[in-house]
Design goal:
With about 240 residues, the protein is α/β, with parallel strands linked by helices. The chain has a single domain, classed as Rossmann fold, CATH 3.40.50. It contains 8 helices and 9 strands. α1 packs across α7 and α2 packs parallel to α4. The longest helix has 21 residues. About 35% of the residues are buried.
Length: about 240
């Protein structure tokens, strides 16, 4: 299979790319950051997803994993939603090989928590996913989204490494853990390769945070001071 991943250099994107490469697939990665690794079946394109003219010409990808995103930035709507739609439509055009589409949304798209514009951008991804699932249904192409809660990744180090915030998170997380990127790769693998009948669905993967108990913890100004002091004590400067 030929898999296209946006945001391939990050924790989740890199883990998914690595999993598919390990299993003999061909992977094309799109990201502004450098390639996460060197592999004969991996091709990396450093490109701005907001610029459609910069999207590379590729052999028809059979799987699209729309994973790129930012959080609490000026580009939340543009990258998380508009660029996701633009990239998807670009590689759908004339693609007769397509077998599956999967979006990386967020638990905040379901709960409405976290940062306002971020939550809105990810909720928009779910709306677009359902629209696309309807359009792809006659071709029997499943189209779904994963809505992840906390994931152990560099993006979330601000809370994972802070014992005060981490305790607050675990106090309200029923399963007392987060998801790691390898488990996310398990979900992506199942939904894109093994699933043939579920479409238009958003899977909430959050260790019970929303269905069983719901809150959102993130550093405030005082917490950021503590984090800087902790890093200095650890010799990180």
């Amino acid at each position: 299979m030929k898999l296209l991943i946006t945001g391939a250099s990050g924790g989740i994107g890199s883990a998914v790319a690595g999993r598919f490469l390990k299993n003999g697939h061909t992977v094309f990665g799109l990201d502004l950051a450098p390639a996460p690794f060197d592999h004969p079946n991996y091709t990396h394109f450093r490109t701005d997803l907001l610029d459609e003219s910069a999207l590379p010409a590729l052999p028809m990808p059979e799987i699209l994993f729309l994973n790129a995103g930012v959080q609490n930035s000026p580009d939340d709507i543009d990258l998380n939603l508009k660029a996701t739609i633009q990239v998807t439509e670009h590689y759908l055009r004339g693609n007769t090989a397509l077998r599956s589409v999967l979006f990386n949304a967020s638990a905040s798209a379901v709960s409405g928590q976290e940062f306002p514009v971020y939550a809105a951008s990810k909720a928009g991804v779910l709306g677009y996913m359902k629209n696309l699932a309807i359009r792809l249904a006659p071709r029997r192409i499943p189209c779904n989204a994963i809505c992840l809660g906390g994931v152990y990744s560099p993006l979330n180090e601000a809370v994972v490494r802070d014992p005060v915030l981490w305790k607050q998170i675990m106090d309200v997380t029923p399963m007392k853990k987060w998801t790691d990127t390898e488990e996310v790769a398990d979900w992506v693998e199942f939904l894109t390769l093994k699933n043939h009948s579920m479409s238009g669905e958003s899977l909430l993967i959050d260790n019970g945070e929303y269905q069983l108990r719901s809150t959102f913890v993130w550093p405030g100004p005082a917490d950021m001071v503590r984090l800087r002091l902790m890093r200095t004590a650890d010799g990180e400067g």
